[in-house]
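Our consortium's second objective concerns turning raw sequence data into structural hypotheses that experimental partners can test. To show how far this objective has progressed, the report includes one record in full. It was chosen at random from the queue rather than selected for favorable results. The single chain below, 221 residues long, was entered without modification.
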Amino acid sequence: MSSRLARLPPWVSHWLGYRSEAPKPLPAYQVALWSFIIAFGGLSVLQAIFNYSDYFKERHVPGIVASYGASAVLVFGAIESPLAQPRALIFGHFFSALIGVCITKLFSLMPEARFQSLRWLAASLSTAISIVVMQLTGTTHPPAGATALLPATNQEIWELSWYYLPVILLSSTMLLACALLLNNLHRRYPVFWIAPAPPKPAPAPIVKEKEAEEEQTKSPV
């Protein structure tokens, strides 16, 4: 992936996280300052889309899915973590949302009173399965655990039904777009898109000439 990005014009590859040389780390106070500015801007953009669009307001979409507050900590504050990279952000949330809706819908086939009394079980089961799926697919993103919980625990999310899935995809995509645009002003994001670069092989041990000569001159006992 890195080699593909290198073929792009620098004004494109820069905003996709490619650097020909490793960037110098920023002082801690600058990291904290930029994390605040970028998180504020990114979450404001996300909420503006859902709060001020008649299309989403007519469908009773909440201003923000709560789990994206936790995602902001990763993609704006801990941008070098494997848990913050695009693959984990996009697919971790989507798989969890899909599992949460499916499990809760299965429980909703019960009589209403029974369903309401067992929503806690649907929530626990949804998150537990989501964790396993994220582990198996290499998309672990901790905030997505809450994304799986919400269809069972939050009535507003439950009423979205299957429309919850495109809302999650749009939210993840917009958060990623903000992370690419804002993080790359002074830092580098993402560290990788699909998978981290394999570690460089350790150099072969060098045998000193003197030691080699001694080995050759040794006679068997």
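The partners drew two points from this record. Residues 33 and 77 are 10 Å apart (CA to CA). The chain has a mean pLDDT of 89. Both points have been shared with the crystallography group to help prioritize constructs.
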